[in-house]
Amino acid sequence: MKNILLTGCSRGVGLSIAKSLIASGYNVYGVSRKITPEYEQLMNENENQVFYKSFDLADPDSVQEQLFKNYITNSVPLHGFINNAAIAYDDIITNLNLDRLRNMYEVNVFSPYNITKYAIRNMIYNRVKGSIVHVSSISVHTGYKGLAMYAGSKGALEAFSKNTAREWGERGVRSNCLVAGFMDTDMSATLGDDMKDRIFKRTSLKVPTALESVADMITFLISEEAKSITGQNIHVDSGTI
Amino acid sequence: MNSAILESINEVKEGKGDEAITSVSNTTHLRDDLGLDSFDLAELTVRIEEKTGVDIFENGVVETIGEIAKQIDG
Lengths: 241, 74
Description:
The complex is a heterodimer. Chain A is an alpha/beta fold. Helix content of chain A is 41%, strand content 17%. Chain A has a single domain, classed as 3-Layer(aba) Sandwich (Rossmann fold). In chain A, 44% of the residues are buried. Chain B is built from 3 helices and no strands.
């Protein structure tokens, strides 16, 4: 059984990713701030396949201790890391608040970078050709009012992923970004209906991006079938062109 | 000499298909004498950390066996 570390596992697209991974036979090592009844149910229905650790990614200094010494030690070979957890700080640039910006970067950028460090260390210790997937956002590629700061944090992940792919490719480690379009989740709940409608109308399909479509593509990128895919940004965004 | 160092070096060498070495000294250079590249050193770091709990690269670059021993002995 292959072991996958998934952040932001307990709701939204993370929960869909967990379900997709379970259906494909992976062991899921979930991480989130708070467990939800839905994730608890997944654990109960899939004993010894679905695990959980409560951890706040706003604390990147504790990544090694909490996630790799107390949860996924080197005795658990890590085959994949899915960086899904994120927070959205949306506001126009002239209102930028540095404390809120720093907090978003701790969660969206610094913790994922640090988790990648220890995930790759686990992979090379166990001589595993692991796969890393970062969940990015269409806002990196298409501008939206109020999302400059959030999009900046996701753009940092895309650059990090491409360079991870180049750096660790010769050890068989792959890294890709799933560029998700706007989904109807708690994270976009702060956007007004008008704004959401305008966003969805900009897509080819005129509908929100389906969570299952994002989740199943991530499961594919983690899998052996995607062994020649690395350093890429894969758009699953209802055709935002 | 900490046996964890020699064991870890030989685990890395085994992974590369290289022959095991039987001894090292404090002046043995990791790159020039043992032929380890940066990826090998990354693997060596995690193997030594697993055995000793010490991340030998945490405080900067190490180049010789003696420098590794110094990190482990604190």
